[in-house]
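Write out this protein's structure.
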Amino acid sequence: MEMFHITDIISILGLPYPPIGQASYYVQCPCCDEKPYKKHLNINLKKEVFRCPRCGVSGGIFDLYSLYTGVPRDQVLRVLVDRLGTPSQVKRPKIKVEPMSNDFGVECPITDIESRHATYSALLDKLSLAKDHRENLLRRGLKEADIERLGYKTTPVVGMASIAKQLQMDGLYLAGVPGFYRSDSGTWTFMQERRGILIPVRNADGLIQGLQIRRDNVQRRKFRWFSSTEQKDGCKAEGWTHFAGVISSQLVLTEGPMKADIINALSGLTVLAVPGVNSLTHLQITLETLRERGLREIKTAFDMDFSTNIHVQNGFNHLLALLDEMGFRFGTYIWDPRYKGLDDFIWAQKNNNEGGI
């Protein structure tokens, strides 16, 4: 029996078609996406269904038409026949799609920073900081007031689904927030990572863009993003920069949000951190924004192995080229090489009154 297809509905509603080769893609949700650049409604061409993981609206072909037009679902078939003719008469564009690994695509598009900040702040409020993690941060030079102000917490090892449910009940969005995803049962939860310290990664206005995890008892990849890539309705984290301090005409540019927080707490300097010297994707955008707010000079302060590690050196050279191209005044802090990072050096200087930068 001939039937209408979801591509017929897409065409008659004027919705965008998917990128070439994709069977699952996102468009603006008419229920919860207030701005055109927000796209949370997933359309799956292979399954002929749609669903918004943010607000929960979902359905099939007739539901999609009803959602956008307000026509009652039981009247949609008659309306389609009036507008398009019978299904066999519809001229359809050829859309090449590849098989999908799951019903609704790999990832949910990332949501706006205000929603992420609200969700992450509420999540951190429900967590605590373990004694050993607190002692570790104190040994690095942070004070109790700094730790509370920064919002560091210990990753939970159980109860993730329960916490996610509480966040939903509080009216917070989980779709499009890196780290959160749907389990096989369809309930929201978040990633169970190796035990470690959750670090809020903030922009210049103090809003939490994402979270990093400093993992316990690992030698490689100690810092990882709180991310739910490749999970159902999951979302990957991006390589955001992290801002510590107050906006000023000069800042220190370093690697890693925890290092930036410690340098700022110990010295009062304004500090901007990239995830790594080879991770500069968001840096140019951040620097352009800060220049509009008065930034003029940048002092780089990467770990002292930048001069001997060829991979770090290459990234560092690319960074200097970017700063030069953008027209900033810049220089590099050099300190006693017995201390790997500027945070280590400043803390030792405070404790031992040793030499300067």
